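Q: Please design a sequence for this.
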């Protein structure tokens, strides 16, 4: 019981940190690649560094998303690939629920790109969280990739 609680809390912490870092990096690198951000940022006032502002908002959103992903990954004892799948599904479920609750919304290319970006951030967060969680919880045990090492002395003569 204690190990499950510890794994869940560690998953929440790692998910929030990984989500914040991945969200921040995604928008910071995107701002470097796609120059042309407006300093008014949608008319909410003049912002000196709109890319940095967007990256900070993305870090907060990624941390919130990572919190949920880390909770699920920790409770489910998810493997690395399963963590990535969970990370990709969580933003899709949130999008579908929001889209269903507001039926007047129309799906345009900007909204589809935003959802795809959220799924990418979620999948990367799930992969990183489950990898780090597996790495920390398996410390002192067998390797992540090699589950059983070949030992010639362990073979029976009957084999």
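A: Design:
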């Amino acid at each position: 019981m204690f190990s499950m609680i510890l794994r869940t809390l560690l998953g929440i912490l790692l998910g929030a940190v990984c989500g914040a870092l991945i969200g921040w990096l995604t928008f910071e690198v995107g701002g470097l690649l796609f120059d042309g951000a407006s300093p008014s940022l949608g008319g909410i006032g003049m912002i000196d560094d709109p890319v940095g502002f967007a990256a900070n908002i993305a870090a907060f959103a990624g941390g919130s998303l990572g919190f949920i992903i880390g909770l699920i990954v920790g409770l489910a004892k998810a493997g690395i690939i399963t963590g990535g799948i969970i990370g990709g599904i969580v933003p899709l479920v949130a999008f579908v629920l929001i889209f269903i609750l507001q039926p007047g919304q129309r799906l345009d290319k900007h909204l589809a790109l935003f959802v795809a970006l959220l799924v990418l951030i979620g999948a990367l967060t799930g992969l990183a969280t489950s990898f780090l969680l597996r790495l920390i919880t398996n410390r002192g045990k067998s390797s992540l990739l090699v589950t059983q090492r070949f030992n010639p002395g362990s073979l029976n003569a009957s084999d």
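Q: Thanks. Anything notable?
A: Residues 143-148 have pLDDT under 50 and may be disordered. Residues 2-37+46-139 form one domain.
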